[in-house]
Amino acid sequence: MTTLDEYQRRCEQLFVAGGNAAVRRAAQAGLDELGPNPDLYCWLALGHAAEDDDEHDDYAEEAFRAGLALDADHLGLLAGYAELCLRADSFEYPGRAARAVTLSKHLKQLAPQSAEAEQLAAAERWARRGYWDDLRMRAAAAAVAGRDTEAQARALAVDLRHGAEAATRDMDAEDRDAVIRAATLKALSGPWNAPVRFLGRHRTTVWALSGILCVLTNTVLRQTGFVDSYSAWGFLWALPVFAVDRRFTAIRKQAQAQHIATLETALGTRN
Q1: pTM (2 d.p.)
Q2: Which of 28-32's residues contact partners 24+ apart within 8 Å by CB, and which partners?
C-alpha cells in the first residue's frame, strides 16, 4: 500500500517538472486508494488549475471545495482556491471571482506570515496588474524563450563536437536538461540542419539583423513607390528566425513530455 507521504512526494515532483496531467493522475490514484484527503484534493486541484483553461478551472474548483469540506483551514487549499478565484473573469464567473475576498481574508487571519499567505499576496498583485505590466510580462517570457533556444543550440554544438554516442551514453532519463539535449541532438544533427543550428546559436544577432532588414526593405519599397505604407514583404526577413524558434520550441515540448512520462513511470515503480 502506498502511503500518503509517498503520494504527496510523487505529486510534488511531477508538479515541479510541469506534468500537470501526471499530477492529476497521481492525486486521483491516491484518493482512490486512501480515500478522501485534503492534501490530495489540493494536488488534484492544482493539477487542474495549472492548465489555465475554463473546463479545468471548473474541475479545480470542485476539488478545492471537496478538500475544504474536509479541512476548512487547510492553507494550501485556501491559497490555491483564492488564486483561482482571483484569476476568474468577474463577468463570466461572478460568484467565483467574489469568493477570492472571503478566502483571502480567512487565510490571512489563520496564518498571515505563512508561505501560502505570501503566495496569495503575489497573486493579488498579479490580479491588479495593468496593460503595461502585461506587455512587460510577455516581453520577459519571449526573452526567456529566446535564451532557452540559444542555450539549446549552443549545447547542441558542444554535443556534436563530442560525438552523438558520447553525448547520450550517460544520459539520465529523469534529468530534464539531459533529455532535451538528447532530443535536440537527434532532431537537428546532420548537415541539412546546419542553417537551423547556426541561426539558433546566434539568435539574438540574427533577430537584430532581421529587424534592421525589415525596416530597410519597407523603407525602400515605400520610397520607390512599390507600396504606399509598410507591407508584409519587408517582414519576410523574420520568417527564418520564427521557423527556427518554432523548431527548437517544439523539440523542447516533446522532450518535456518524454521526461515527465519517464519520471511518472519511475516514481510509480519506486512506490
Answers
A1: 0.81
A2: 29/2, 30/2, 30/4
